[in-house]
Design goal:
The chain has 344 residues and is of the alpha/beta class. The chain has helices at residues 7-13, 16-19, 34-41, 52-60, 87-97, 120-124, 190-197, 215-223, 236-248, 282-294, 315-323, and strands spanning 24-28, 46-49, 66-68, 78-82, 106-112, 131-137, 140-146, 161-165, 174-178, 205-209, 228-233, 254-257, 268-273, 299-310, 327-331, 335-341. It folds into 2 domains: 7-153, Rossmann fold (3-Layer(aba) Sandwich), CATH 3.40.50; 160-341, Vaccinia Virus protein VP39 (Rossmann fold), CATH 3.40.50.150. The radius of gyration is 22 Å and the shape is globular. The protein binds S-adenosylmethionine. S-adenosylmethionine binds at residues 53, 183-184, 189, 192, 210-212, 215-216, 232-235, 238, 258-260, 274, 276, 287. S-adenosylmethionine (SAM) binds next to helix 8 and strand 11. It catalyses: guanosine(1207) in 16S rRNA + S-adenosyl-L-methionine = N(2)-methylguanosine(1207) in 16S rRNA + S-adenosyl-L-homocysteine + H(+).
Length: 344
């Protein structure tokens, strides 16, 4: 899945002489075996990732120099940041990694020209006096700088943002905590809203699949504190946001990393999801496709899967194929809510 080198790594392959002069801490948008390429040409890099799928894949490759979480605990003589999708996430990663590097460390930033890498000079300005563009090819660019101003100790709390979510009846609003790059920072997504409005009364063990900032799970627990809730996500930042959201509202759930249902055990009375969707991103479609085909095995007899999806996605056929039926229980302009019950 991560076998082919991305155009960014192909461009980095032309710069191995500078990149391998010191062991690097590599982080950001890791989508291939760039760490393997670096290790072949020079000292093995350390990897820090917030993506559980990438973490598992590197571990399967036998690479133990990898950390998964919200911040790395070990630095290296240099840093290579692969520009993540959100600029705020790049700022976050620099703030989390740079306190682990010594003054004078080499800093590299690389990424697709359309993915915001051109903001490297601005992003590195708080830490460096001069930012040089070393290369630009295959629609990707590489920037270099030297750490001249040591970074302040990293404080996760200063990256947490939040918003209040009004609830029905006379309940106090829910406080939702988010971190950079976590879905629906700042407001409740309209698909998630439609899902919440159509979940009805649940019971027993419930799985919040792809929990994001924990907005679905926190709503469910607030309505029905007796539920036994599990929240899973592939992103360490989403999982941390969910933990913070639950704590902020004095709610409890089992929150853990899982790529799809891979780390989930046992069966549930309900699985609820606003699954990942991004036009053109195959991995996201595969995640949802895999959920739809295997969810049944993770449900008790009579248990239900309820999900919200963009109305044009071909999910009803996939649900029918697995469950033998698929009900559309709500529709608005953009989204549909599908439900299926395990009958066999
Ligand atoms: C559309 S967001 C929904 C977030 C949250 N439930 C809400 O309604 O605001 C989808 C979530 O799925 C997560 N995700 C993406 N791929 C995943 C995978 N393979 N396994 C588990 N979660 C995944 C994303 O990190 C993201 O938080």
């Amino acid at each position: 899945m991560f076998e082919a080198l991305t155009p960014v790594s192909e461009m980095l392959a032309r710069n191995l002489d500078v990149l391998t002069q010191q062991p690097l801490l590599v982080c950001g948008l890791l989508e291939d075996n760039l760490p393997g390429m670096l290790a072949q040409a020079g000292p093995a890099p350390r990897i820090f990732t917030t993506d559980f799928r990438y973490f598992q894949w590197q571990e399967q490759q036998g690479n133990s120099q990898i950390e998964f979480g919200v911040q790395p605990t070990q630095g290296a003589p240099g840093l290579l940041l692969l520009m993540p999708k959100a600029k705020a996430e790049a700022e976050y990663l620099l703030a989390a990694c740079l306190p682990l590097l010594a003054e004078g460390a080499q800093l590299f930033m690389a990424g697709d020209n359309k993915g915001g890498v051109k903001s490297a000079p601005k992003l590195l300005a708080p830490y460096a006096d001069q930012v040089n563009k070393l290369d630009s090819a295959r629609r990707a660019s590489l920037y270099q700088a030297e750490l001249v101003r040591p970074a302040a100790p990293f404080k996760l709390a200063s990256w947490v943002k939040g918003y209040s979510l009004e609830l029905e009846k006379a309940q106090a609003p829910l406080q939702i905590c988010t971190l950079p790059g976590v879905f629906s920072a700042g407001h409740l997504d309209s698909g998630s809203r439609l899902l919440l409005d159509n979940l009805g009364n649940l019971k027993g063990r419930v799985l919040d699949f792809g929990c994001g900032a924990g907005v679905i799970g926190a709503n469910l627990l607030k309505r029905q504190p007796e539920l036994e809730l599990e929240c899973i996500d592939i992103s360490a930042l989403a999982l941390e946001a969910t933990r913070l959201t639950l704590a902020e509202n004095q709610l409890n759930a089992n929150v853990y990393a899982s790529d799809g249902l891979s780390q989930v055990n046992g069966t549930f009375n309900h699985i609820v999801a606003n699954p990942p969707f991004h036009a053109g991103l195959k991995t996201f479609f595969h995640t949802t496709e895999a959920l739809l085909s295997s969810a049944k095995n993770y449900l008790v007899h009579g248990g239900s899967l309820t999900l919200v999806a963009n109305a044009f996605l071909p999910y009803p056929e996939l649900i029918e194929k697995s469950f033998g039926h698929c009900e559309t229980i709500a529709v608005n302009g953009k989204f549909k809510i599908y439900r299926a019950v395990r009958r066999s």
